[in-house]
From TrEMBL, chain A:
PANTHER family: COILED-COIL DOMAIN-CONTAINING PROTEIN 115 (PTHR31996:SF2). Residues 117-133 have a biased composition (Basic and acidic residues). One of its GO terms (biological process) is vacuolar proton-transporting V-type ATPase complex assembly. The lineage of its organism: Eukaryota, Viridiplantae, Streptophyta, Embryophyta, Tracheophyta. It holds the Pfam family Vma22_CCDC115. This is Vacuolar ATPase assembly protein VMA22. InterPro entries: Vma22/CCDC115 (IPR040357). Residues 110-150 are annotated as: Disordered. One of its GO terms (molecular function) is unfolded protein binding.
UniProtKB/TrEMBL annotation, chain B:
Subunit of the V1 complex of vacuolar(H+)-ATPase (V-ATPase), a multisubunit enzyme composed of a peripheral complex (V1) that hydrolyzes ATP and a membrane integral complex (V0) that translocates protons. V-ATPase is responsible for acidifying and maintaining the pH of intracellular compartments. GO terms for cellular component: proton-transporting V-type ATPase, V1 domain. This is V-type proton ATPase subunit F. GO terms for molecular function: proton-transporting ATPase activity, rotational mechanism. V-ATPase is a heteromultimeric enzyme made up of two complexes: the ATP-hydrolytic V1 complex and the proton translocation V0 complex. Pfam families: ATP-synt_F (PF01990). Keywords: Hydrogen ion transport, Ion transport, Transport.
């Protein structure tokens, strides 16, 4: 009787170890896919920036024009204890960093709640959600547009459409970077679990 | 509990950057730039005149500031301070190595993947079979 109970426990332990290994491999796969997607987004952004510099002139798009007066970041991240998890908060008012528009928050929870889906499927779902957008209140859209214009204004009042396109590409890259941060955290967590299982079996 | 890491909860935190001018320009356009009252920024532009010491100091500063949750560093810059990046093991801020215009991302040099690649090595598989 006792030996059959031990057998069941041992099988459960092996199944759990295998699940940890699968989680780890899924995380590594997601991480690599996201890095590849990030590379594409950044390449797009650099190309658009080069086009903007070409049309506006190098003297109008360079680091000498960066705003060095005291100001808060409009785009920040929120962190919580679990894993940890990061959440991007885009285009809050830089005058009052504590006020965030609800539409501006980028939800990362789906990435962890839909664990049964493959990483590629999860990523595709997230891409579709971004494209669909959903209805956004006019007020929050105005807030985001106001902050975008404020940021662009460091390069002058009239800017090339390519510079606006650069802004959007790097916003996309930022969203991916937050996803990558969360995937990195789950990858390291899964790795720790696999290491612990290896130590227990040795 | 003395060794418990300092993890901030749910307050807004910054994204710091150590990268080339174009990458920093792009991310500043996306709204991550922050300048405090002492005119300290959350980014360091790396060019041909930037020394390794400056990069090291910026990395140490960004990884010890409590208001920074993510540090983006171009991978070619991370390679200049590889020993420092690889020895960093806190959960926050998260260090992310990103590609640059002239240096594409190389998974072989990524500090996170380097840490876990042991599990894929032949020695690891062989030791598991013993």
């Amino acid at each position: 009787m006792q030996s059959s109970e031990n057998g069941v426990e041992s099988r459960n332990g092996v199944a759990e170890s295998e699940q940890h290994i699968l989680n780890f491999l899924d995380s590594v796969d997601s991480y690599l896919i996201l890095m590849e997607t990030l590379s594409s987004a950044l390449r797009q952004g650099w190309l658009e920036l080069a086009s903007a510099r070409h049309s506006m002139g190098a003297s109008r798009v360079n680091s000498a024009l960066f705003d060095l007066k005291s100001h808060h970041a409009s785009t920040t991240v929120q962190v919580n204890d679990d894993l940890p998890q990061f959440k991007l908060c885009k285009w809050a008012s830089s005058d009052d960093p504590e006020k965030y528009s609800e539409e501006a928050k980028f939800e990362e929870d789906e990435l962890f709640q839909n664990k049964s889906d493959g990483p590629r499927h999860q990523h595709q779902e997230l891409q579709e959600k971004r494209r669909d957008g959903g209805a956004s209140p006019v007020g929050t859209d105005n807030q985001a547009q106001k902050e975008r214009s404020k940021t662009l204004s460091m390069f002058g009042t009239l800017v090339s459409p390519k510079l606006r396109a650069t802004q959007l590409s790097f916003e996309t890259a930022l969203e991916m970077l937050v996803e990558i941060s969360n995937t990195r955290a789950s990858l390291l967590h899964a790795y720790d679990q696999v290491q612990k299982d290896r130590t227990n079996t040795e | 509990m003395a060794n418990r890491p300092q993890i901030r909860t749910s307050n807004s935190a910054l994204i710091a950057m150590i990268a080339d001018e174009d990458t920093i320009t792009g991310f500043l356009l996306a709204g991550v730039g922050n300048v405090d009252l002492r005119r300290k920024t959350n980014y360091l532009i790396v060019d041909s005149k930037t020394t390794v010491k400056q990069i090291e100091d910026a990395f140490k500063e960004f990884t010890t500031r409590e208001d920074i949750a993510i540090v983006l560093i171009s991978q070619y810059v991370a390679n200049m301070i590889r020993f420092l990046v690889d020895s960093y093991n806190k959960p926050i801020p998260a260090i992310l190595e990103i590609p640059s215009k002239d240096h594409p991302y190389d998974p072989a040099h990524d500090s996170v993947l380097s840490r876990v690649k042991y599990l894929f090595s032949a020695e690891s598989v062989a030791s598991g079979r013993r």
